[in-house]
């Protein structure tokens, strides 16, 4: 398993990098954004997936450094894609939003790079967020006031109360792939997806379905009024230059 000292060395040696997964408008098939996903290219262990190192980073406090590195790479890439009509979604742990004073930091970084804040989407997982909503309310509100977008990731896997959902200043909801991937086979997953879409729209949020793996699922979600989607059926995460060649030129 990865260790804290291994991660420190990996950060110093620039072994962490981002891949990008396109997001599509279901009605038109157009690419409207990308999600930045972190990877660790270890010199001897090979490619390490975030599920193996993010929890360790969160426990050890290295998550702040990782988030800084992610912001630098993602926003640096976005500056190169300044003339493209796409958004950039970035996954962050809620604690780093507070620790790094994210509204100020993002504001300074996007201003310096001449990136419109409307083009940046900050994704927070439902579980991490709802465990301590009141702690995050002020900082999330400040992010929205600066016109950054806020997205609830992995929706359906946590335990948001309706009361919390009404209060949080999010403008996007991502249906977790555990529901999307079973849609066609499983009536209950379809019910969760359907409910998520209508709940989101009722609260003025747009919806992204994650984990679309076949055309049937794509069609079903489009029919349901889900605006956006990601998934291996359309595109896998890939390095920036590949994304650019395949989808942005
Ligand atoms: O692509 P994928 O298998 O990479 O992502 C696995 C998980 O890791 C997802 O839940 C995703 O939210 C998380 N993740 C990916 N990149 C980052 C990142 O830069 N920061 C944080 N905190 N989580 C990430
Ligand atoms: O941040 P989040 O937990 O949503 O991370 C998205 C993860 O889902 C990434 O690891 C990405 O590689 C993965 N992913 C994206 N689309 C698909 C898909 O269609 N099928 C599967 N199995 N995984 C997907
Ligand atoms: Mn995500
Ligand atoms: Na997710």
TrEMBL record:
Molecular-function GO term, any one: cyclic-guanylate-specific phosphodiesterase activity
Keywords (A to Z) from UniProt: Hydrolase, Phosphoprotein
EAL domain segment(s): 1-249
Enzyme Commission no: 3.1.4.52
Protein name: EAL domain-containing response regulator
Phylogenetic classification of the source organism: Bacteria, Pseudomonadati, Pseudomonadota, Alphaproteobacteria, Rhodospirillales
